[in-house]
Amino acid sequence: MAGMNTDLLTLVRQALLFERLHTIPELSRTLSTSFPTIKKHLDILIEHGEVDEQDSDVSSGGRPAKRYRYRADHTHGLALYLELDAIGYRIFDAVGTLLTNGTVSVPRQQPHVPALVRLIHRLLAQDPRITFLSIGVAASVEDGKVFFAPDYPSLQQVDLKQTLESEFRLPVVIENDMNAAVVGFHEADQNRQQSLIYLYLGKNGPGSGILINGQLVRGSSHFAGEISVVPQYDKMTFGQAIAKRRATLDAQTIDAISRLTATFAATLNPRLLIFNGEELTEHDLEQIRFKTTEYIPEAHIPLLIRSNWETDYLNGLTRIGLQLLTEQPLSANRRSSS
């Protein structure tokens, strides 16, 4: 469309969706763009059914200011995550509201990609309004290609993004599970722009997601957070040290987590270290904090807290999926129901 700035269109969508900005003055000020230019791009989004224009309920006596909101019913997204023996999913609307969710079992001997493709086909048939996919995997990912998946040999070196985009002709984003979880926690947290780390012991092997000053850390080779390989003892990595843990954490597991906590504190100095609430108790956290003081001064130990990992994971995949939605060309935001 003549005069349209596609980068600005993405920024306007993101400001409406994520920053909850609703007026042209707010958008103009935040995006450092003129009123007429903002208005033109809002008109484009209205024309394509993405945005609604409404009169403000509050008036200073003059003409009511127009307010704009991203339409929840514009489209639907689908988030899925792969576990060793299951695939979980969530369908959500264009502002991230949950519509439906579920879990499908996958036999451990069965490759995950065919099972994933079958499930997506079934869900698309049930909801033809889905126009984008967000996929979480317990593996290292770069540009949609899985390159380190010790617990998922059938995914190793699979370009999952290309595979799914070729199959479904929809935009797809692939993300590491812990990156998604830390993003999901951060989105729900009131203290933005902070540094935090999400630590998962997990049936898939341990992993972590890292946010520094509100920015997701992937590392130069997208290997950041692969804590299973961190050396801790003469002959054991962190992954090996906790491999035989039980429901009640033993002394070796407590020590291994405490050493890793000290490592994080000395290198990244996060404000929060978040654990899966189903894996550790508050008593476990007390033991970890006490043991960590043997390695570093207590003043530098991050706050240790528990959270709902599955909720954070799915919230993160939803947020990442909506980010993908905002980056799409206008013509890519709808899918025929035929």
From TrEMBL:
Domain of life, per lineage = Bacteria
Instruction: Quote the InterPro entries the UniProt record gives.
Output: ATPase_NBD, ROK, WH-like_DNA-bd_sf, WH_DNA-bd_sf
Q: Enumerate the UniProt keywords alphabetically.
A: Carbohydrate metabolism, Xylose metabolism
Keyword Secreted annotated: no
The family database entries (Gene3D superfamilies) matched by this protein are listed as: 3.30.420.40, Winged helix-like DNA-binding domain superfamily/Winged helix DNA-binding domain (1.10.10.10)
Task of the protein: Transcriptional repressor of xylose-utilizing enzymes.
User: What protein family does this chain belong to?
Assistant: Belongs to the ROK (NagC/XylR) family.
- The name this protein goes by in its record: ROK family protein
| Organism of origin | Exiguobacterium antarcticum
